[in-house]
Amino acid sequence: MFKKKPQIKNLSPLRSSDRRKLADQIIADYKVHVPTLAEIDPSAPTEEGKAATASSNPTPALSSIRTSLIPETCLSARFTTHAGANATLVSGTVYVGAYPGQEERILWIQYGKDSRLYPTVYTLWHNPGIVPLLHTPDFVVEKLRTGADLMTPGLFGGPPWPEAAKPGAVVAVAALERPSVPVWVGTCKIDISSLGRVQGTKGAAIEGVHWEGDEIWNWSHTGSGGRVAPDRIEDWELEIKGAEEGVAELDLDEDEDAQEDGGVALDPTTTADQNGQNMAIGSTEHHGVEQEPEQEPTTAEVDEAFLQAFIYAAHNAKKEGEPPHYGIDFPIQPSFLIANMVQPHLRFPNQHYTIKKTSWKNTKKFIKYLDKSMLVKSKDRNGGETVILDIDFEDERIRSFTPYKLPKPKPQHTSVMNDGAGAQPPANGGAGADPSLGQKLSIQTVYRASSKLVPDLIPSKTTFYTSSHISGFLKKYIENNPELTRNASSPRYVKLDPFIANNILSSNPSASDTRALAAGEIARDTLLKRVLEDSHLCLPHWLLLRNAQTYGDPDNPDPALPKPKSAPPPHVSVVLEKRSGTKVATKISGLEVFGINPQILGPELQRKCAGSASVGQHVGGKPGMMEILVQGDQRDVVEKELGRRGVDKRWIVVDDKTKKKKK
């Protein structure tokens, strides 16, 4: 179904309540085991018979499983595509999310009359064991990637077969070369769990839905393509630990009848011992010490960690800066407080230590608490945002603070991590994944002369000239006509001749033109300004120069330069508006012309602003022109991030719609 690229509409953030409902639906549909409180801590008091998946009182394990299935920053979008030989129109929903250290990918597909949810390979790599895993030879996998179904003789590893592989069940398929890495997802057409030996049988066993290499796998915000599968996934190896015994006893006789039914016959030259060894390699390599899961801290512990992190940041600023503000720019916005002061100084920077896990639940209440504790002075600005105006650096808690050891940032590895997902670095590595970072931009204004000035003043009406070029032409014209300066009242002035009077000053004349005509002379700089500012004489155009590009010889322009455009010079639009009553949001559009990808900048702003951000079609803009929506008044952060990408402040137009209109 996804052999061809589906039409995916604009992504929108998934509400927390909808995310929890979706995760609970997946847990129920796929019978995901959620440890109860008694299993986690036998000494903990529990209500007899109470289900662990109750959303009214979720266990720490349930919250962790929900996040693993549906990440907190999950997005959703509708899609349409065509499937089958008759190209039947199919519509549904895709759910996009990012696991830690990885790029956003499509994690779940929902379609069909029953709105069934299908995991993608990215979800399976991160969540071992949620579906039964079957195996087939590598050359069969290559055939499956063309859209074929998996025939019954192509199954390897049984009997016995997974008990959950019943008709209609979602299953995953891995190649024998990498038996712990699912690369194909489908639904059972027969009861595989009850099969015996499959050699000599006929018919399709599994109908394909999605695989590594299709357009769902290939989708990404940045257009970088799909992520290569890891070499092995340890937790999946545990799921298939007993499979190698069954494989070693298989008879690999060629099944010619399977080909007649559309299946792939098995190669008789492939020995059972070799396949058994391939499956056994992954199983025998798993001897590492399993890391203990992180225990979720109490709310009081998270509160204390946030408070200590802020004091640590203030202590460092006082130690390294100069009074009175010690290098801190006030006022401090909520996003800056969390992203640049609290998070870098947390003793345990993990998923449990977030502002939502504190008793304050949001940054505004956290700032109010700091104010009440006499550590800071805060103020509510227009739009309901609370900022920090000053910090009491003489407070005893800051002066006597003893710094604790901060954890080192974890480097990204290309090898498979414990969760089996294997974080892959960006194609260009690190910050280089955003090609617009560090670029140098300049907007060059050029002019195209009208026929009134050609050829007396300007040689061509099709060539684009800069203001310095036109100034040179005017100077040369005056030098070639010495009578213009002979009787002038000052060296700064030139006498009017028929060309200047009729072709320049008579074009859309102003009051100053009338005075010049009456005086019979005009200042040189005024004449040049008159030529450049009259669009009937010189039509202005602009072109965007990047890095070392320059607009040199107008008669032989660099072919790599963009074509000048006659529209007004471009700008980035930053609009502040109220949404849902008093909440302020920042919308950014007009990025594409400056070579900035909104799909890359959006997640970056989300991290910098410590708030939600979404990317969608720009309302009122051309198709394909996107806009970023960020929570809060983030104009300063946006201006700083655009500056890092070469956008000058003069090219940023801010429209603050949160201010009260004057009556």
Automatic annotation (TrEMBL):
One of its GO terms (biological process) is formation of translation preinitiation complex. GO terms for molecular function: translation initiation factor activity. Residues 418-428 have a biased composition (Low complexity). Residues 42-62, 255-280, 403-435 are annotated as: Disordered. Residues 53-62, 268-280 have a biased composition (Polar residues). CDD domains: eIF2D_C. PROSITE patterns: SUI1. It comes from the Eukaryota. Residues 572-646 form the SUI1 domain. This is SUI1 domain-containing protein.
